[in-house]
Amino acid sequence: MKSAIKIASLAGLALLVLLPLNSSADLGTKRASPHRRKAGESFPPLPLPATPLRRTEKKRPPTPPVLIGRISYGVPRELEVEGERHTFFDWKSDPACLRSLLLRARKRLDLEYTDAEVRLKNLTGDPDQIPILYITGHIGFEFTDEELDKLRDHLRAGGFLWSEACCGDPRFTESAAKMFAKLFPDRPLKRLAPDHPVFRCQGRIDKVAYREKGVPSEGAPVLYGIDLGCRTAIIHSPYDLGCGWEGHDHEGASALSIEDANALGVNMAAYCLAYHKLGKYLSVRKVYHEQKEEDSGAFVFGQVSISADSDPDPSGPIALLKELAAGTSGKVTFKRAVIDPASGDLLKTPFVYVTGHDDFVLSEEAVNNLRGFLKGGGFIFADACCGRAAFAAAFERELARIIPDAKLEVLPADHPLFSAHFKISGVSYSEAVQAAHPGLAQPYVKGLEIGGSVRVVLSPFGMGCSWQGVERPFAPALRPDSAVKLGVNILVYAMTH
Known about the structure:
By secondary structure, the protein is α/β, with parallel strands linked by helices. 28% of the residues lie in helices and 20% in strands. It contains 11 helices and 19 strands. It has helices spanning 10-18, 97-109, 145-156, 170-183, 242-246, 258-282, 316-327, 364-375, 389-402, 431-436, 480-496, and strands at 66-71, 77-81, 84-88, 114-118, 132-137, 160-165, 190-191, 208-212, 215-219, 224-228, 231-237, 255-256, 299-304, 332-339, 351-356, 379-384, 409-410, 446-450, 453-459. The strands form 4 sheets. A 7-stranded mixed beta sheet has the order 4-1-5-6-11-10-7. Strands 14-13-15-16-19-18-17 form a 7-stranded mixed beta sheet, with helices on both faces. The protein has a 3-stranded antiparallel beta sheet with strand order 9-8-12. A hairpin with a 2-residue loop joins strand 10 (224-228) and strand 11 (231-237). Helix 2 packs across helix 6 (258-282) and helix 8 crosses helix 9. Mean pLDDT is 84; it is low at 1-53 and 286-292.
């Protein structure tokens, strides 16, 4: 079809035309056949605990809960197909794509859900009603501030947003990027790393077949996202997925193959289902109740800010500090100092914690300040949140800038750190770690010795993400009990060395 806008199929377009423009009809539901009963049948004697059924009345299965809500927006458009003009909405170019994806997800995940149409102004702020919102189209779009507020509240409360450029149209991606910047100006849209759980959760996806403006190619899957804490709340695909979900493709489009679009879509559904509960939990932040009190010589938890991703678990340190206060004689202040390493903030505490998911680069000022911090007796505890390889690699690279020729070494099992408070001879890891490293049961921590004692510690497996007792699905991490014990030992070791 030689048109800037590609329609799913003539049959799909005809169905759109037959529906009223404001219709929210369920495209996959058939009307039930009328029931026929004998005149002599009647209700049994009352009272009953529930509304009774006549003997020949059929029981209808309960309606599946809604998992994905397609966002409706904009005004209807017109398109000429084979000499006939048709009216349609750009957001509904592939009307059955979500229903088709959910049918595949039901077979793969053994869970039954349905989809619906929603307007942003009608969102209630409770993502339990519709966990995932989905927006697609070809052309540019824009929402009002009120609609963006509704969407932002939905995401912060634990919901998700899927954004997908139909046919890979760059106009849609450009509008989506502007919307994301308005929603979360301090959180840049980033390409998801190859070890992101969305590429691992239901099936491993390392390579996909796709077309770039009609030219066949293959490579790593391309998704972009915005993280809210330890979950990617916004997932954007610049390549078409919906046409693949519906089972067709278009010449000249930028799209994944039908098979790979479906595999990635099922993974996206599995990821959001697994992280929905975590999103709701993380939406409630615990308060550092001594934050405004004057320093009294007690231990203060310093946390280095190196990027927008430096605080994925704001409430995690509180859980660790509570365990430290309850299990040791050390004086602990329930206070966290957020430190800019490029400033003089490092003087606030001899201990700093640095975490995140992604690659980062320190400024020259930060490198120089951290070098002085370590030479003056400071302690750095680095934690690859959710076990992300990009953060661990970046930390080791930047540490070599801070201390030239520095090389972190795996601490031996008899190192004093593992007996600083708890006697730790073994730890428990998540299923992701067990799958990648069968039989691993010892604590795996890297350290750098300066002046006769370890002054830098790195955990390549997620630790802080487990301190709150809520596991991150699919993440290479320590399980909560082991994470807390090892975290307390690191704090005690830092305080006593």
